[in-house]
Amino acid sequence: MEQLVIEAGQTERHYWRDLWRYRELFYFLAWRDILVRYKQTVVGVAWSLIRPFLTMVVFTIIFGKLAHMPADGVPYPILVFTGMLPWQLFSNSLSESGNSLVANSNLISKIYFPRMIVPAGSVIVGFIDFLISGIFLGILMVCYHFPPDWRLLALPLFILLALAVSLGVGVLIAALTVKYRDFRFIVPFIVQFGLYVSPVGFSAKVVPEKWRLLYSLNPMVGVINGFRWSLLRGQSQIYVPGFCLSFAVVALLLVAAIWYFRKTERTFADVI
What we know:
By secondary structure, the chain is an all-alpha fold. It has helices at about 15-20, 25-40, 45-65, 75-100, 100-105, 105-110, 115-145, 155-180, 185-195, 210-215, 220-230, 240-265, 270. Helix 4 (about 75-100) crosses helix 11.
């Protein structure tokens, strides 16, 4: 009996080239996810502002008013929201991409395309929320008369770093969820726990100096500190050893996630 094998040329050799060749599918999946996210919602795009706004209010009251955490001359709501921006990008990307392969099981089991397109497209949804929230941060800075300075030019670098963290964790969780469906319940816990152990509602300077390098093993520490340094004028220099460690963790995480994804990708259609 003859067997028909469907593949895109020599897929292993041309995999990264296929990512470019299938870019239109990437655009389509990303646009579809964006439409699904906001379709038939009462508040629509405003929901991207309501969640971080309410979190900002709660953290400002708890850490700023009750705990009296230092803000280094920065209005506390702005300090919190500059931490919320990269965290929202990370958490939304993780939530969207974690279940993306399972949600697209019909597509994955029928045709060939580089599967990495699916979780990568889900990260775009988180990036759209990030851009919407960025507009609100600009309005907040105008209201508090606290504009950024020349360091704003470095912001794109930290945005790329935040996207790298989001993509790395999203790709890894997406691959793990295909085989271990328990990760659908683990992801919300990771997001909730990470929100409090990352310097979102407070400045990383409150961490004792002897623990600061160890604390930087959390890759979001370097990302959030970078955002605040580039957006908040008057902030002191970045803690360079901690930032370098966070950057190394991000790079290692991204490489390891892609490696594991590629290793298990050929089994997705069978397991899913």
